[in-house]
Amino acid sequence: MLATWYLIPGLGADERVFRGLSLPGPAVVLHWLAPQSPTEPLRQYAARLAEAVPLDQACWLVGVSFGGLLALEVGRLRSLARVVLISSLADANQLPPLLKMGRATQLYRLVPFGLLPRLPRLAQWFFGARNGREYRLLARILRDTDPVFARWATRQLLHWDSTGVPRAVRLHGTHDRLLPPGRSPIDYALPGAGHFMIVSHAATLSRLLGELARPTST
């Protein structure tokens, strides 16, 4: 029987970003939950999200961007799951310098999280949405993002303690402006792909995920 794929979208996104994927098995999108408080710890949040993943099920956890952090945190609690990161971080030390500066100065607390949807062309540049279809999807996702959730998620990202997270397979675009790849190890680097590659490079990602799931000969 084919393993189930549990898909966790990026901050504020939903199942729309996965529409281009073709996976070798059933796929379940883990929808975002409302934080129980502005300071709910990421691990506590992940434990609530993990309730949708059976303890005894061998499966795949695929996290995109901020969803990658959740995939790793759920992976702590589900030992039979294999984690795949798309446009995400495998370790808190991989935060880019700009975000580390935001954490150190606490300036992220002043960010008007409702502003980005009003600057869609700037967002398009950061995310690497390449054409009209991708741009329109990104604009809708930004419009639908809850600023309260975005503020909580940003705080969790900047203060994430990744100690002891499971190993993950990392897929990352070489032109990711939001989370630049830097010098951190990447298992599959997609030349020219940006942060929105879950949409823009869905066919390539589908092929790579299919290869990961293929049984290896002994």
From TrEMBL:
Please report the stretch or stretches of sequence annotated as the AB hydrolase-1 domain. Answer: 37-204
Could you give a GO molecular-function term held by this entry? hydrolase activity
InterPro entries in the record, alphabetically? Answer: AB_hydrolase_1, AB_hydrolase_fold
Q: What is this protein called?
A: Alpha/beta hydrolase
Establish whether keyword Hydrolase is in the entry.
Answer: yes
Q: Which superkingdom?
A: Bacteria
**Keyword field:** Hydrolase
* Signal peptide boundaries: none
